[in-house]
Amino acid sequence: MKRSFLEIPVATRDGVFITRYSEKGLAELNFPNSRTSARGAKKEVVPAKIRGWHRVAEAALKNILAGRAPKKFPPLDLAGTDFQKCVWNALQKISFGETKSYGEVAAAIRNPKAVRAVGGACGANPIPVLVPCHRILAANKKIGGFSGGLEWKRDLLAREGVKF
DNA sequence: TCCGTATTGAACT
DNA sequence: AGTTCAATACGGA
Fold it and tell me: Does the pTM exceed 0.90?
């Protein structure tokens, strides 16, 4: 069974991001380039609950894009395996402007050897930016990869004041 | 069960 | 210093 998400666009100076909400929280976020947007504007009823989340999510997103640390995050409804959720949870513990290597993340979840699996989980991350998969660099401080495009990763890091 | 992965560290040019 | 290679954990087909 496929979960249906409530899709809400977020206009920023960098383009229109798409957020998707489930009954439990923010479930997905897409970069502007994905042409997932511009759909037959399904103006369904947006529960007040979700409007509240969206307000927080939008503020958090714009803060990050502006190079400032968000004060607050909306609840996240991460759909994935236990391992993935574990990784994503670890990612959220990385503070703004800080970077970690895949190896360190692996160590943080008590699987020091699962470095590549961590990479896989990052790639499967449904919520970039808010779940800071872009703050993960390879051990030799190289850029690695990024789902939404490497330009985004570099740009986001630069805005956080990270140099490499 | 086999294959690919957003890695890593060591061995080899 | 750049490159190749095997190992490793996990998810998808």
Answer: yes
